[in-house]
């Protein structure tokens, strides 16, 4: 995937948050990218951090986590 801090978010389709609620990921079908946002825990305001180019038209998104064994 390509990463940049400039881009365009057009036609948002799906949104998900990371488990701790500090980041949001939004798929954009017209621009074939995923926008990555930081989430302000006090206000809920979203701030764009980057755009990741998708290899096709993203229509859904899932954040998977991996817990380290103890």
Structure description:
It is built from no helices and five strands. The protein has strands at 3-4, 12-17, 23-28, 33-39, 46-53. Strands 1-5-4-3-2 form a five-stranded antiparallel β-sheet, with no helix packed on it. A hairpin with a 4-residue loop joins strand 3 (23-28) and strand 4. It starts with a strand and ends in a 17-residue tail after the last strand.
Sequence-ordered SSE layout with sheet pairings:
Layout: E1 3-4, E2 12-17, E3 23-28, E4 33-39, E5 46-53
Antiparallel strand pairs: 1-5, 2-3, 3-4, 4-5
Summarize the structure.
This protein has about 70 residues and is mainly beta. It has no helices and five strands. The chain starts with a strand and ends in a 17-residue tail after the last strand.
- Name the average pLDDT: 84
Please give the order of strands in the largest beta sheet.
Answer: 1-5-4-3-2
Low-confidence stretches: none
- Strand content range: 35-45%
Counting DSSP E segments of at least 2 residues, the number of strands comes to: 5
Q: Tell me the series of helices and strands, N- to C-terminal.
A: EEEEE
Using the CA coordinates, give the radius of gyration: 13 Å
């Amino acid at each position: 995937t390509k990463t940049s801090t400039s881009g365009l978010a057009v036609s948002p389709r799906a949104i998900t948050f990371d488990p701790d609620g500090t980041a949001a990921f939004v798929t954009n079908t017209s621009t074939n990218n995923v926008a990555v946002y930081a989430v302000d825990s006090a206000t809920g305001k979203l701030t764009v951090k980057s755009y990741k180019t998708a290899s096709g038209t993203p229509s859904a998104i899932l954040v998977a986590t991996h817990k380290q064994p103890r």
